[in-house]
Structures are given as structure tokens and as C-alpha cells.
Amino acid sequence: MSDQPLCAITGSSGYVGGCIKTHFCANGWGILELTRQPKPNSRAIPFQLGAEISPQVLAGVNALVHCAYDFRPLRWNEIGAVNVDGTRKILQAAHAAGIGKIAVISTISAYPGCRSLYGRAKLEIERITLDHGGLAIRPGLVYGNKPGGMFGKLAAQVRNSSVIPMIGGGARLHTVHSEDLSGFIRRYTSGETKAFPFVLTAAHERRWAFRELLLEIARGLGKKPTFVPLPWRLAWAGLKSAEACGLRLNFRSDSLVSLMYQNPNPDLSPNAEAGLACRPLQIEKVQL
What CATH number is attached to the domain comprising 61? Predict the structure, then answer.
């Protein structure tokens, strides 16, 4: 019987979940992936967020990191049924399976009074997580040595275009390196840090204006783009209209609301006591 600890991860095909998976593997953990489409001969089980899950499939698992979120539902009742109730089901299964450590990825767009449906859903998910004694953590904009996710999309936009529409020029963004986020979650699941009965925000203290961040990415790419202001509400209306026509886009209207209305004053004061340190963004160290 192997002494290697085993971590179940949902959403490992996404950028954040993939970063966490890679970090855990590099630090001696075995991984059980919960995914919609398990690859042949992989250590994975079928998992659909919102569906019932048996505690038996989680037997022998030491920790669960829940990163999955289904962006396909657009209406609140559907979002609740899939993402909120889906989280409740998997955490209940983890509790019944005797999993001692549970960590759930939230978002810095979740805070009292948040405007996006995504933020509202994550607030509910945070409450469920704390009720199950787990760690709920709100990452800022996640980047890594090889960027992906939203940061990667921004880098690709700057790389591929010399004229960039400046949507959300008033947005203020906090960043977090994927290794800082992943390392803290691993230390928590290993028992090196204690659980907290409140939500932690994983982010460096510096707030980047959206334009500032794009310029910093451009500097790293050696580019000098031209920005064309575009009112974000106009862009939102266009996305909303496309969604009403049944079009599935890579970027949703609610994602734009999340981008524009991130937590204006995240509480980073507990991080030092928790052992959560987030490095500043150094664009020279990012392989853009």
C-alpha cells in the first residue's frame, strides 16, 4: 500500500486547477482527477458538476481541491442548481468519505454587494465550504511563468493586436502567482497551516489599473499598442445581446461585470498569520 498522499481535484483541465495539479504532483502527491471526460488509462473518474456523486469514489482520498465551475448556465436558477448545489453535493460526499482537508477556489469578485452572478454564486459556495470546515480562498488574477486563464487571454490580445479596445479602463486588479496560490493550498492540505473560519484572499497588495496592467504586459512583449476607449456597458450590451440570441462566446457578459466590479477593498490582513505570501507581478519572469 502506497504512503503517497492522494488529492482529488475538480477542474484540473482549467488553468487554475491545472496549476494546482502540477504543483501537487511536483511535491509528491498522487492526483485523482474528477472530470467530465476522463482520459483513457488516467487516474480519473467521471464527474459532472451538479450531478450526484457517491462517497465511495472518494475512498482513500486525503484532500479535495474543488476548482470546477460551469460557466455555461446563464440564469441564476441554473447557476444555483449546477454550481452552488453541485458544490454542496461534492463537499457532502467528501465529508462522508472522511476526507480531512477541503479547499475550494472562489474569486476576488465575490464580496458582499457584488454585482456579478458569478460573484454571488461564489459567495454561496464559500458559505457551504465554511459549513463543511473547509478552506475558501479568493484568488486575484492568477498568472504564472506560463500564463493562461484570463491573464493569458490579456497577453494574447496584446501580442496579436497593435490596436486594443480599452474596455473597463476603470477596473482595478490584484494579481497572484499560481505557485503562491498552489503552495499555500498544498501546505493547508498537508496540515502545515490551520483552517480559518473565514475566507482568505490570495492576492498581492498592489492594485493594477486595467490600462496599467496591459501596458506592463506590452512592455514584457516589447510592444507599444494603441488603446481605443470603449465604454464597458456598451461592450456588455453587445455580449448580452449575443447570449440572448443563443450564441456561446469565449467571454460572457457576466464575466465583464466580474472584471469591472472586483472587491474594491479586499482584506489581506489575515494573510501573514496564515502564512499566505503573494509576490508582486514581475513581468520579466513571465514567459509571455
Answer: 3.40.50.720
